[in-house]
Amino acid sequence: MAVRWEPPTQGLSCAKLVNIRVYTDRGIQQKVTASPNETEHILYNIESCSALTVSIGVVSEEGAPSKPVRSQAYTAANAPGQVQDLKVFETKSHGLHVKWSPPSENHQCLFKYSVCWREAGKTQQECERHGLELYPGISIYHLQSCTEYVVTVASMGSSKDIGNTTGVAVFTGPEPVTALKVDNVDTRSVTVSWESPPCAQQFSVCWGAWQDKGGHSCTSVTNT
């Protein structure tokens, strides 16, 4: 950031140096000095996407400071870094839930997230803008069952700059079973049968007495 000023109209001959202070909402970020003959100074290593207050004052040979002059500034935006820890939290037949952690690089520039999803092997995709949250995540609905999807999340800066995109591939679940039947009931066993939906690989079969109120036993059955 370049800072320019006009020298004082009085007392310049007794000036020793010019004090330049840069403040953020967290306090002083930089303190530099310039010679009385200078009227411009370039400040480096300043955080992007930051509101700053620049204060300039002149100090005499005896160390007496002038009243500082202040000006407000806002540094330019950089694209925030990519999101971290993108993972699928839950998968259903027609939907899924993904979550992630905010980017650590240029986090102060983060404005929103752009979440997109598409079927694997296809280019057409749907996207949604997602606001900032303490624990960011999104649920995606109206998907096809038994289908591989690619979900990408990109961080967005306030100037709509988009950072690096992070993606994950996931399969949606199968449809529910159909034609569920219970046959051959005797005192100690029953036979359960059903029709399998496409792409189902395993089933969870649970049973229990009605009065158990949820205290059921379960077993896994592989689709054959």
Automatic annotation (TrEMBL):
Q: Which organism is it from?
A: Timema poppense (Walking stick)
Gene3D superfamilies in the record: Immunoglobulins (2.60.40.10)
InterPro entries annotated for this entry?
A: ECM_Regulatory_Proteins, FN3_dom, FN3_sf, Ig-like_fold
- Record-given protein name: Fibronectin type-III domain-containing protein
Q: Which PANTHER family match?
A: FIBRONECTIN TYPE-III DOMAIN-CONTAINING PROTEIN, TENASCIN
| SUPFAM superfamilies registered for this protein in UniProt | Fibronectin type III
Q: Where in the numbering of this chain does the Fibronectin type-III domain appear?
A: 82-176
User: What CDD domains does this protein's entry cite?
Assistant: FN3 (cd00063)
Task: Tell me if Ribonucleoprotein is a UniProt keyword of this record.
Answer: no
The alphabetical list of record keywords is: Repeat
